Amino acid sequence: MIDVTLQELRYVVKLEQELNFTRAAKAIPMAQPALSQAISRLERKLEVKLFERTSRSVEPTAAGRMLARRGRELLHRVQVAVADTKLAGGSTRLRVHVTESSLPLVRRVLTAIRQEVSVPVHQATVPWEDVRTQLLEGRLDIALGSKVKGPGVTSIWVADETATALMSRTHPLAKCDEVTFSMLAYHPMVSIDRAMSSWDFAVEHEFNRRGHTPDWTRSTAFGAVAGADLVADGKSTLLVLQSIADDQPPGRVSRPLAQPWKVDWHLNFRTESETHPVVATALAAARSALS
Asked: How, if at all, do strands 262-270 and 252-256 pair?
């Protein structure tokens, strides 16, 4: 039986991804000559060509592509197995992703989880586009926020919150009893950092399905709580959850939307982890806190 190590699989996977020895070596990280030698040794061991090399490019052969694909699957399973083992043995933390830790709903969930689970709870905020990957790889255990879609992840609806328009008391729309998306389209809309939150995409969707487009501000904020400060210019508005609008200082007001918009909160987790006692306890605690 030919012995191929996990490290050798990592080399193949990274080189197939980068198609460049220098970039792949930097990402691993290791020296470029060492990576080249390791790939050559593996090819001799397997007696098959994995990559075609020229002075300008690196291309995987059919065998190289297959080993990279299978290797990626194996490395993922090993990573998940290690994470699950540590979690089941109580020698790790429960990692929970939240986008706005200051929100009342989020605080309730985190408090309930910390009171019930037997391991430390690590609160994290990662770029939204990475949440699904980190759940699947075991780097996150639970994500509280928008629904995460795709195979391998289960998403449970737990609550709705009403969205409202936040603005300065001196803003022209502050005189209205309620506002429409067509009215909001004529005023700058505060933008939330898209790398960390999916909020702007949700706002755009609500505008677009009503035939309008938001006029985003050039400045962005890390989250909606921080973004609320930008409406102080008296020109900008911000669509926020009602719980954020209710916690604003004097000088700011909120106006309900004439076309109501409900925002869903979901508990997202890797489907296979639901049976783990710590994750199951955390999910039960979170759902109980929101019921």
From this structure: unpaired
Q: What is the mean pLDDT of residues 13-39?
A: 91
For residues 273 and 282, what is the distance between their CA atoms, to the nearest angstrom?
11
Supply 125's token pair. 């905020």
Encode pLDDT of 62-95 as tens digits: 999 999 999 988 887 777 777 667 666 655 788 9
pLDDT exceeds 60 at position 268: yes
Compute how many other C-beta atoms are within 10 angstroms of the C-beta atom of residue 248. Answer: 16
* Residue 188 and residue 217 in contact, taking contact as beta carbons nearer than 8 Å: yes
Cα of 107 vs its chain's centroid, Å: 19
The Cα 204–Cα 206 span in angstroms is 5
Angle at 97 between CA 92 and CA 99, to 5 degrees: 155
Residue type at position 170? T
What's the DSSP call for residue 172? Answer: G
- Cβ contact 153:266 at 8 Å: no
Q: Tell me the per-residue pLDDT of 42-52, one tens digit each, with 9 for 90 and over.
A: 999 999 999 99
Angstrom CA distances, 30 to 14, 23, 25, stand at: 12, 10, 5
How far apart (Å, rounded) are the C-alpha atoms in residues 198 and 146? 8
Classify 179 as helix, strand or coil.
strand
